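Collaborator request, handled under Task 6.
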Amino acid sequence: MEFSQRTSGRLLLVSLASLAYSCYQEAFSGFSGAAVVNASYFTFSTPSLLFCARRCRLQRKCLSFNFDVNNGECYLNLRSQVTPGTELQGGSPLQSFDISLWSEVRIFLILLTVIFSIMVLSPISYNKW
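Structure tokens returned to the collaborator:
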């Protein structure tokens, strides 16, 4: 493979990673320290905020979710931060996210960011690029 092909492959990789990272930053700007309370209908443990977002996204009734980064607890909510009558609790260790900000494309791009970061930072040589 010629040098120019490898270079253009890496430039494409970096461009995609940059796009995905901007989506990642926007998606992770949740309401830290103010959680939606008295709205959860399902709670489970998960190793990642992404799994929490994905699970909420797959259920029509889930309008937001709270995530506890300390213990990996995910709380799926029937109301969002902007739903009238929603109660918010300040000073909470939970981060709260409105699911309308998490499109399937955004979740996919975030996952791509993780994969590309591993590939770029890995000491393994990817000759096909």
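The cover message to the collaborator said: "Residues 3-27 form the longest helix (25 residues). The helical segments are 3-27, 49-57, 104-121. Please let us know whether this matches your experimental observations."
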